[in-house]
Amino acid sequence: MTTTPIPAFPSGFRWGVSTSAYQIEGGADADGRAPSIWDTFAGTPGRIVDGSSGATACDHYHRHTTDVALLADLGVDAYRFSVAWPRVRPDGGCPVNPAGLDFYERLVDDLLTAGIDPVATLFHWDLPQPLQDTGGWLNRDTAERFAEYADAVAARLGDRVKLWITLNEPFIHLSLGHGTGEHAPGQALFLDALPVAHHQLLAHGMAVAALRARGAGPVAITNHYSPVRPVGDTEADRAAAAGYHALHNRLFTDPLLGRGYPTGLTTPAVRDGDLDVIAAPIDVLGVNYYNPTGIRAAPEGSPLPFDLVELDGYPRTACDWPVVPGGLRDVLVWLHAEYGDTLPPVQVTESGCAYDDRPDAEGRVVDTDRIAYLDGHLRAVHEAITAGVDVQGYYVWSLLDNWEWAEGFTKRFGLVHVDYDTQTRTPKSSYTWFRDLIAAHRAAPRR
Ligand code: BGC
Fold this sequence. Notes:
Elements: E1 14-18, H1 21-24, H2 37-42, H3 60-74, E2 78-82, H4 85-88, H5 98-113, E3 117-123, H6 129-133, H7 141-157, E4 163-168, H8 170-179, H9 194-213, E5 219-225, E6 228-230, H10 235-250, H11 253-256, H12 274-278, E7 284-289, E8 293-297, E9 306-309, H13 325-339, E10 346-350, H14 368-386, E11 391-397, E12 416-419, E13 424-427, H15 429-443
Parallel strand pairs: 1-2, 1-11, 2-3, 3-4, 4-5, 5-7, 6-8, 7-10, 10-11
Antiparallel strand pairs: 8-9, 12-13
The structure holds beta-D-glucopyranose.
């Protein structure tokens, strides 16, 4: 880790942390919540590595006061959480469950009292199971249901949430949930899953209209980005890398910024007028970054034209992901160069890493690797700002160790360690480091 201090960020830069509903809340049956596709998926033997589910997770639903106190001590400007659709509209459509909204209202009000801006994501992959039963994101109606749900949340919280994020990482929900089946709903449709991309984007566009109609804003979407590195030097390898780049990085961004779908990635699900709905102006683009992706051409007869390849020569996290901070700078600089004036201001809405963190004999959790990871990624963000990219915030994934989807409880991403037996929260060294960094920047921002 470099010992020179991280350069000062512009005044007004937003420091934050992110979480998502199914990964921390628990309270799976509380106050009228009904199952989502992740309850169903986790209940299917063999889907989750440790056989667990998010039924209890960090029990945040019953402990949000403790967690807001942790946020206040950390000193963040903003907290990004997600609203669970199956709490607000348990059957996917009508009626609204007021008790579900009550929880988010308590959370939002407690955040505001603590001086923290609530940033709400409306869909972080927990589709109500009844909507999956009618086709899920393969069914265009799901977009309409999403807009109704967005309206219901905005009707209650539109005056208090400071940034609205419609969808989290529609590419990951498409690729792992519907392309390969490693995530809920567990469909392995490969490129036949493309209508899922379109219906998510349509849902986003309709939700933007619903939020604005309620006077709620500013409005954003969060995408997952990964710089693509061709592995192998044949023409086929380079073509595979270009194809994968279009799928991962441009499939969702091109239509959002008014360009329509990249060549070869459209679907018959697109109807007249849809692209205009999708391209409704947004105020912020959320960028999530974890690592670059190595790609080479797939062998003849493979269901996809590319193979994902491990990138050698980098340190690795507990997820076995390469640690490449410069990839975050590359993504931000690429977005700026590629989309120019059509790119709205950017916020890095997730950046973080899993390590095998455990309390030591004194009960401290010393996570030096995570501090080095965050330090490197913040320097990369600073380089992008210096290169002219309008990056207005950085949110660490995640506040708490939590339920990491198909990896269950085996991967710890938190600034705060969670003992899942006792629900004890122990701030790690990285929490103290991030707290001190925020305080130092707040005292001396760049003007
Ligand atoms: C997701 C999070 C997830 C994190 C680490 C992101 O893709 O938004 O829900 O926990 O990556 O895998």
